């Protein structure tokens, strides 16, 4: 089981790191009390493969019990069933001060140090030193943009950063209403319609006979080629911006033949390139096209 504890200085970007881990498939929990850690790990182990990637944010918000965390993590590292990692985020005092002034949020130690943010930050560094010493990964976020921090976190846990983005290929029929959730929509009603071929009408674009018919026309093949070229250009840009999901929709009249054909073919093309792809067809089961 892959188990990551996200910790570090308040205001260093731990919440953003947790969002990234959640987007790439980790089960994430924020601010779990350290005394519950072993019980939670036992529950995860009992779940089998249902919880095989877990990330927990733990920091000084836990109060006095936080001091127990370092020892507990050292014990967990001895368990051969667990792949335990500590992701430690930090930033300079000046940057943390600026971030707190911009957000106007209270530091977790604000009350203990009578509102002195400088003293609270200094005390937090001292308390975090033992965890910093056993950190598997250390990221200084002082001069990182949001997208740069996302990219660094992804690079630690993914073989390819493109794995962080799910691409959903979907088809729909304009006669039943255009899709509203897609990032990219392509209208393929300009292509010859299999609906008017009696033998093909009961079939869908998931069937080879419909695909072969649609792709038998030179304009269909040319459109597919141009779409592949366009997506080869666009997808790395979306990945670079930190997008976690890209929805690409194809629409035809009834959502059963041409749009399904293109969603299937583009989905297969992107899958062959090693991208994470899911296909769905909104209107394929409707009785009439």
Number of strands: 9
Helix content: 25-40%
Could you report the average pLDDT, rounded to the nearest whole number? 89
- Spatial extent as radius of gyration: 25 Å
The rounded distance between the terminal residues' Cα atoms is 48 Å
Given helix and strand content, the structural type is: alpha/beta
Major beta-sheet overview: 5 strands, parallel
Low-confidence stretches: none
The percent range for strand residues is: 15-25%
With helices defined by DSSP (H or I, 4 residues minimum), what is the helix count? 9
In which order are the strands of the major sheet placed?
A: 2-3-1-4-5
H-E string: EHEHEHEHHEHEEHHEHE
Shape call: elongated
Task: Set down the secondary structure blueprint.
Blueprint (H helix, E strand, L loop, with lengths): L1 E7 L5 H10 L3 E4 L6 H10 L6 E5 L11 H9 L5 E8 L2 H11 L13 H17 L3 E4 L5 H12 L8 E8 L10 E4 L20 H7 L3 H23 L4 E8 L5 H15 L3 E6 L8
Parallel strand pairs: 1-3, 1-4, 2-3, 4-5, 6-8, 6-9, 7-8
Helix pairs in contact: 1-6
Structure, described:
39% of the residues lie in helices and 19% in strands. It is α/β, with parallel strands linked by helices and 289 residues long. Strand 2, helix 2 and strand 3 form a beta-alpha-beta unit.
Structure summary:
The chain has 289 residues and is an alpha/beta fold.
Q: Keywords, please?
A:
9 helices; alpha/beta; 289 residues; four-stranded parallel beta sheet; five-stranded parallel beta sheet; elongated
């Amino acid at each position: 089981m892959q188990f990551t504890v996200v910790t570090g200085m308040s205001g260093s970007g731990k919440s953003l790191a947790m969002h990234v881990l959640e987007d790439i498939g980790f089960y994430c929990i924020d601010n779990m009390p350290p005394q519950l850690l072993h019980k939670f790990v036992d529950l995860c182990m009992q779940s089998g493969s249902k919880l095989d990637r877990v990330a927990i944010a733990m920091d000084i918000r836990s109060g006095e019990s936080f001091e127990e965390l370092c020892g507990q993590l050292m014990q967990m590292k001895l368990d051969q069933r667990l792949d335990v990692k500590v992701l430690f985020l930090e930033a300079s005092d000046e940057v943390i001060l600026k971030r707190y002034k911009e957000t106007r949020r209270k530091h977790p130690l604000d009350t203990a140090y009578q509102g002195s943010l400088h003293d609270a930050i200094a005390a937090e560094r001292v308390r975090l030193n033992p965890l910093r010493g056993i950190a598997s990964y250390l990221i200084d976020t002082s001069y990182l943009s949001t997208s740069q921090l996302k990219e660094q976190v992804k690079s630690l846990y993914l073989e390819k950063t493109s794995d962080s983005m799910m691409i959903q290929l979907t088809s729909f029929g304009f006669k039943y209403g255009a899709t509203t959730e897609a990032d990219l929509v392509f209208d393929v009603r300009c292509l010859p319609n299999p609906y008017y071929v009696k033998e093909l009408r009961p079939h869908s674009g998931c069937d080879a006979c419909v695909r072969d018919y649609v792709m038998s026309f030179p304009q269909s093949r040319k459109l597919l080629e141009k779409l592949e070229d366009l997506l080869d250009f666009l997808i790395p840009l979306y990945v670079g911006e930190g997008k976690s999901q890209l929805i690409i929709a194809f629409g035809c009249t009834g959502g059963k033949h041409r749009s399904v054909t293109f969603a299937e073919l583009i989905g297969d093309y992107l899958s062959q390139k090693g991208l994470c792809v899911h296909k769905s067809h909104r209107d394929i089961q409707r009785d009439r096209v």
